[in-house]
Amino acid sequence: MSQSDLSQPAFSAGLPDRAASLSNCLATSYAGIIAFMAVATEGSFSKAGERLGIGRSSVSRSVQRLEQHLKTRLFLRTTRATSLTREGERFFKHCHIGVSHIAGAVNDMLELRSGPPRGLLRVSSGIGFGRNVVAPLLLQFSEAYPDISVELLLNDRPVDFAGDRIDVAFQDGRLKDSCVVAKQLVPMQMVVCASPAYADARGLPATLDELGQHDCINMTCSSGRVLEWEFMVQGQVRTFLPSSKLTFNDAYLVRQAVLDGRGIAQVSAHQVRDCLRRGELVTALTQYAAKDRGHYICYLSREHLPARVRVFVDYMTAQIRALDLNAVQRPGVGEC
């Protein structure tokens, strides 16, 4: 045979035929193989029927159809005993290997569902929330569940659970995808903040109309669109898109520019909570903070949830709810 005969295209071309042959074989003989294995294991057609929950005659018919399909006699039957022919012994040996593999695969799936948590977990999160909240908790989680490997993927794109094979995703804001299970961890607070130096030099806005008088720092989302600032006014969401000399596509850079006194920005509270507690930033317009956003942990379905996903969701829910993600500065400079 030449090297070209062993090429990948030639090998691949045969795969559909092999798959069709396997499908036809199973469709024809699956019930017969199950009946055959039961009779060979139990030693009689009656006991095989009891094990399978069907009548003796049904077992006999299934085995007969299998023998016709194989054109081979598998059992020697007398009024006193049932035994395997030599061909039956050979067939049982090969079938036993396959059944053992199938039983092992079934047990493995059951163990993933109800056994000790183990396996690979692919987790997705927005960049800011992933860095500030999720990643610091992973070390403790790994120590508690050493048999679970976690792969954390950080990006601000919409989550593609199927395409990216994501098990669990952390999402912020308002969720519109009803195809996923979304559990709110904590409300998501958006705060307008500035450095004390900026507040001393320029003051802070006391009303939304005063935002236009300040140096605002904007942020773009993954699509390149500049994110609007959102506020709650008399129960209605009001958006504002200020002009800006500085615009970034990374929340860390926005925060750093605010810390450097370059202007004011609206950011997620978890991005600046430590800075607020240390007095490195001050807040404004807190009376207009929108209250319809949240931080969510999401997965595709509650049914047949693997143990590794279940313990991760429970662990992260408890740990994140224990954090004070929405803490704002105590009353002081710039508070409204």
UniProtKB/TrEMBL annotation:
It comes from the Bacteria. PROSITE patterns: HTH_LYSR (PS50931). GO terms for biological process: DNA-templated transcription. Transmembrane segments: none annotated. Keywords: DNA-binding, Transcription, Transcription regulation. The keyword ATP-binding does not apply. GO terms for molecular function: DNA-binding transcription factor activity; sequence-specific DNA binding. Residues 35-85 form the HTH lysR-type domain. Belongs to the LysR transcriptional regulatory family. PANTHER family: HTH-TYPE TRANSCRIPTIONAL REGULATOR (PTHR30537), LYSR FAMILY TRANSCRIPTIONAL REGULATOR (PTHR30537:SF72). This is Transcriptional regulator, LysR-family. It comes from Bordetella petrii (strain ATCC BAA-461 / DSM 12804 / CCUG 43448 / CIP 107267 / Se-1111R).
